[in-house]
Amino acid sequence: MKRELWRETPFAVKLLLSTSFMMNLGFYALIPYLTLHLTGSIGWTLAMAGLVLSVRQFSQQGFAFLGGVVADAFGYKGTMVLGMAIRAVGFAMFAFCTETWEFFLAAVLSGLGGSLFDPAGSAAFAVLTPESIRKEVFAFRNVLTNIGVVGSQIVGTLLSAVDFTYLSLFAGAVFALCALIAFFLLSPIAATSTRQSIWASMVHVLKDRPFVQFTLIAMGYYYLSMQIFLTIPLLVERVTHNKGDVGIVLSAVSVFVILLQMQVSKWMEGYPHRLTLIGIGTLVMGTGLFMLSFADSLWMLLVDVFLYALGTMIAVPNLVDVVPRFAPKELVGAYYGFNGYSIAIGGSLGQIVGGWVYDQSLALQMGWLPWAICLSVGVLVAWMLYQMEHRTGQLGGGHPKIARS
């Protein structure tokens, strides 16, 4: 981030960026090794371990709409602090679980915490960041996320090598520290002085047809984004016959984003059509995934995931920035919360359908099939968002045309 842009960034936003980095560090340090702990030390099947992870994700994304509405009604700071504290308890609890129900309780608590702080945090970013630099700040937030992902692999590997208990307690401590930082250093952040009832807020969002349409279309982006956790690792191992190369490829995606995200955002400064940019980014991701059909070496895999990473660099800052442009100022949290369904449903389809198609492609000896579907999804999302932006040219909540800066 440029120095002058950093100087324009309010202290509260810098604080939010710091806690966002720390939470990503704690989250990605724990979650990958939780699966190994459940299937190794605890002796569960992979299906049972996957069920725990699914419960955590559903508890977060399934209740994020309600969490966003609560944040609008009672303030973003308090909702964030409460959510961080609940997740801290859930993550730390994994260290002491021995019974099946205890693991599921920890997963539910971890997810419910996220359903509170995630939409509240995104709304706080949008409300506190000046609109003139908001997209750049969201781009920098994406860079910090990926730095956290890379750092988390080091922390997770070191602590899990000692004992999973320490890793779980570390992740819980990170979220507890973030809760304390936000509680003592962050000023109260209220959406508006005029509060609506929770039910009225939810009805308002559901009646915003353009925003509901955008949320449905965005599921395609999250279908593609989930492949980095599921089918791409399987393909890398099949192509190179080396499990170590999986870490190289996944780390490369984060490194590409760390090095190039701000430059890519600078290139996009003069293009105001944000929905179209999201579509272009998704199409580039789909193209990179389709090119995996022809990868026969580690270097080819790295070239293809570079295209995938480039697509995320185009799409992600605009995905986050566009939500408050749909929302009235008093309902930003509710809009972010409802938009979480695009992650919940699109991500679940990416894991379930993507995994099933991958298995079928191997059985049918049609290795190109899952990647051709990814390209088709990218084309469809790009076309639908282009049509939406240029056909209606409007937002919900009485806001101006989305193409305006």
Automatic annotation (TrEMBL):
It is found in: Cell membrane. It is a multi-pass membrane protein. The keyword Membrane applies. The chain crosses the membrane at residues 12-31, 37-55, 103-128, 140-161, 167-190, 211-234, 246-263, 275-292, 298-320, 332-356, 368-386. The keyword Cell membrane applies. Keywords: Cell membrane, Membrane, Transmembrane, Transmembrane helix, Transport. SUPFAM superfamilies: MFS general substrate transporter. Residues 12-390 form the Major facilitator superfamily (MFS) profile domain. Pfam families: MFS_1 (PF07690). It comes from the Bacteria. This is MFS transporter.
